[in-house]
Amino acid sequence: MTSSKKFALVTGGSRRIGAAICRNLHNVGIDIMIHYRNSKEDAITLQKELNNIREDSACIVQANLLEFESYEYIIKEMISSFGNIDFLINNASSFYPTKIGDISSGHWEDLISTNLKAPLFLSQFAYPYLKKNKGAIVNITDARISDPKKGYTVYSIAKSGLENLTKSLAKDLGPDIRVNAVAPGAIIWPEIDSQYGRHSQEFDKKYRDEVINQSILKRLGEPADIAKAVEFLLLNAPFVTGETINIDGGIH
Ligand SMILES: NC(=O)c1ccc[n+]([C@@H]2O[C@H](COP(=O)([O-])OP(=O)(O)OC[C@H]3O[C@@H](n4cnc5c(N)ncnc54)[C@H](OP(=O)(O)O)[C@@H]3O)[C@@H](O)[C@H]2O)c1
User: Fold this and answer.
1) Which of 16, 43, 63, 196 has the highest Cβ tally under 10 A?
2) Distance in Å, CA 81 to ligand 1 centroid
3) Which of 9, 15, 17, 147 to mutate to test the pocket of ligand 1 (most atoms within 8 A of CB)?
4) Is any ligand 1 atom within 6 A of the Cβ of residue 92?
5) What is the pLDDT of residue 205?
6) Is the peptide bond before 97 cis (omega within 30 degrees of 0)?
7) Is 155 a catalytic residue?
8) What is the DSSP-derived secondary structure letter of residue 144?
């Protein structure tokens, strides 16, 4: 007898937008593998929250997406925990400026690996299971990539690559697997420091007000807006593949 249960892997799923995606998919009955790198406490807290709602419905896996071995490891952990994978949500990301003249191979490795390389190889390792289950992939891109933000060259290249990867994988993995993307606009402001880079003071109040004013809806979005779009593409869009939905208050 085949189980009707569905299983999703959300990378960078312990906090912020990733956690909203986990909660929302869990709420519609999907069991969740929460991937995290550093945010162990957040991952454990979220896992407990979800397991309190439904027993044994959430697991966690720690891995640094800069390590090539991590891709196969994450999928193996998913299979040993749940026995299957139906949905892959490539949400984990690094994001910071890279000034021409100061760009290092470390910046390149970090921004390209998290935003582009990991989604490709996770998809490849998940492919046999996704194909068997007629599963789906959603990549989280960025609404600004059609008009890249000045000073963010490597991040912009990586996210543009991810949008192209979405279309390429839709062709290569179809008709069994649908592959789509959600492109957020301003949802939650970035944290000022990251391991490899630092946002400039441009993320101050004046800049934030400017960004909001450039949107049609004149406000920030919410993580739940992204989570609902992911749910739509995974569960309610059987004739949609290779598509990117901008969830950005009209900013693009
Ligand atoms: N926030 C926005 O308004 C906005 C706007 C446009 C696009 N987006 C996109 O939406 C998605 C979610 O946004 P967000 O702001 O919630 O993301 P975020 O907080 O910047 O990053 C999400 C997670 O990515 C994980 N991560 C980073 N580097 C990693 C690595 N080397 N290995 C493994 N995991 C790594 C981190 O996990 P740990 O904390 O466990 O280390 C982090 O919590 C991202 O793809 C982002 O580019 C967001």
Assistant:
1) 43
2) 24
3) 17
4) yes
5) 85
6) no
7) yes
8) G
